Amino acid sequence: MPSRRNTQASRWSRLAQRAVHAGWAWAQRTGSVTAERPGRFRFGALGTGTRLAFPLGTVFGEPWIHLGAYCIVGEQVTLTAGLMPDLDLGPEPILRIGDGVVLGRGSHVIADTTVTIGSDCYVGPYVYVTSTNHSYDDPHEPIGKQWPRMEPVSIGPGCWIGTGAVILPGARIGRNVVVAAGAIVRGTVPDHAVVAGAPAKVVRRWTAEEGWQPPLRTPPPVPIPDGITPEQLLALSELEAEAEA
Asked: Which one is predicted more confidently, 11 or 155?
């Protein structure tokens, strides 16, 4: 039988745990960045309904960062414009993120020169997008001290970028492209393609003439018809579970 002292300690432990969780939830709500509550950040543009989750990653050069409307930027996402803070980068934005973009937790978007992410792109967690790469031309100089190479990056609208993918300088990704998890992308990727590997290669592509090649192995998902209520969906799932039983 537990002693009174142990019971009391357990009760205080549960209360402390609840207090920590409640405090952290309050910090997440209060620390998130929106157009209405930008805090110390002065983005060049921050659209309606866009939210940067707390805690943020590294953010600097925000006057040259334009975020569209209804974007979701996950926790610990780094967004930078320029090589370092407090530079004057000129009159034009360096990092442009379209409407409805989702950036997964822990992702990095490093825009030392122009980076564009089109509308309705979904970026998984821990994706790395950069317009800069180290150079190693001089074999006698430490690589970290050599001037980096910079090339613009563009990601078309409607893309899906899988977890842990790396988008390298000079990448030009078309619209509605799937980048597989862990892929390393450089160069040009055509519209409506699936790329995978390191370096990434096109493994499937859609054209109006041939459709998907190679053909898809599974039928397309059936969308939920208009007018179906959550209660009807729940009842349907229960019927399916009974039928399987």
From this structure: 155
